[in-house]
Predict the structure.
Amino acid sequence: MAVALFHEARRAWRCLLAPLLLALITSCSGKNDADTLFDDHRQLLQTTLGVEAEPATQPENIAAFPDQDERLFDIPDIREGLLDVYALRECEITSLIAERNNQLGKVAPPSQRWLYELEIWRRLHACWNSDVPDSLDDEDRDRLQHLTESKTRRLPKASWNALFGSSEWVDNFSRASEPLEPQDSPPMEASLDALDYLRQATLNQFNPNWHPDSSTLEGHLKTLQRTPLTARFLRALQLAAVRLDESATLMDTALTESRACPMNDATTLSQEHIDQEHSHYIERLARDAGRWLQAINDLLDVHTVSRPAVETYRRHWLSLTHDDAPWTRFQKARQRYESSRRELRARCDTGGDRKDEEGRT
């Protein structure tokens, strides 16, 4: 009885540990499911074409996002005496300033500081365009004008800092993120809605009739943080570009070495499940990454200010047109792969001799 229980317990432990060991081995190999899919597809090409592939090249990781002092604007506080602010009490800014200067206000996240800057500008703007200036003496009227103009100039920088100072936004560019996997179902629509809300918030920062909502803003930022789609898409594009180039080289080599169809069976490749899964992944990556990067660029385009380090990062990693950006490299590699694939299909669809009929091995 004791022996039977011992063997039963040992079998149970094996069932429990097997998936854990598999996960550990996968982790130590440095590969995720996307890389495995590309490896399986390359192996299929080697087997079908009878061509030995060169060792796989590891794609470079995405660059580190600019440091905080490189991506944010320095916005010094405007200091006014309590009596000077009190003189402008009809502008209804004294309570706002008090909230900003209390302990909680000093540690508020960037998004909340932006809401403060937005609200104080709106009150100053409304005050300056009301009858209040007529009731002020010259010194207080000049002070109100100076505050309104200063806050107007600062608001675009405050909007920029609210975005690029938030951990939710910065985490979207994390180098530790894995490439998007074939079975992943990221919240694309919710994340695109979040980007669109941030874009609308920036576009309407000087529109007194547009009213931002704190909880909505924070909710959208949390959506972006939960799934760092930017980094995952960039890393997937990097990986796909390298692997598609390698596959194209395999096909080009086979076509060069044989004047006939280099496959023993012209239908084998297209009917393989791995080949179909590979095609679906590439199509999905092209569709979703394109939509995502366009939305990112649409958001950045509406900001009227920027920082040099961010512009450099954007050009090299987020651009849809720059030659060295992941999206452009992916598109070029995909075009080359599809061109080689079409040539292979055309060669084999003509009904010509197979390479084994030429006496090749």
